[in-house]
Amino acid sequence: MIALVTDSTAGLPPELAAELGARVVPLHVLLDGESFVEGVDIGPDEVAAALREGRRVSTSKPSAGAFLDVYEEAVAAGAEQIVSVHLSSAMSGTIASARVAADEVPVPVTVVDSRSLGMALGYAVASASEAVASGRSALATAASARERAEAASTVFYVDTLEYLRRGGRIGRASALVGSALAIKPLLQLSEGEVGPLERVRTSSKALARLEERTVEAAEAAADNPLGLDIAVQHVDAGERAEALRDRLRERCADAHEVRLVGLGAVVAAHAGPGAIGTVVSPRVRTTPPVIGAAAV
């Protein structure tokens, strides 16, 4: 039996996490120094309001003890191995906590650095779940998660770079800070961190380019025989995100799904109110190939 673990930045609603058989270790949001558990004590709306009010907002990783509690719970439920899939180590020390806890568990734990977050991580967890359900080994399950995460394209728009800068999660996009007042930047996840993609003058043009970039990524993955999924993610920008989702459904009709997702409280703390992003996630093979099948 293989147990699957992820963290709250995957943005999986509780019912979807339960459907995937994934245990979720939450990160924390600090408001004016007081700690709140993501998805339990605080959500993205409260974070967006706090940012607009100018309150001190920061985030913190789970402790090794929090991971150990979840791992031991899985072992008590009969797990013989654990695959633990998490957000990029370039943006958080969550992976480090998971690895410390993994050394204390009496069963093998494979910790996967997805080099991603949000639904790029969520879809990686979904592929890992499919691999477990099909009887794959822990190593094959981890490989499915890595492959799905690596294949994903994540692009997003933020109203301001200030929240990324404050939180230290700005990565290579720091080159844009000096001109931040004059642009509405498009950013991407590249090599596990935030990087610059385009400089756009207005929010309407930025959202139009976000749409075009998403369609281009979907078209580039169109030859994937397993198909792809798309997610539109946002922080307190539901109407604009929903309109984008509807347009992408029309323009990317071959996608298995175009899902609308609110980003979690931790990601909201760094992206800020008004942020909108998309994930194009080609599916990967999670079942063993059929040996001796006739070529088509």
TrEMBL record:
Record keywords, A-Z: Lipid-binding
UniProt xrefs under Pfam families: DegV (PF02645)
GO molecular function: lipid binding
Keyword flag Transmembrane: no
InterPro entries found in the cross-reference section: DegV (IPR003797), DegV_C (IPR043168), DegV_domain_contain (IPR050270)
NCBIfam families to which the protein is assigned, alphabetical: DegV (TIGR00762)
Protein name per UniProt: DegV family protein with EDD domain
Lineage, opening ranks: Bacteria, Bacillati, Actinomycetota, Actinomycetes, Micrococcales
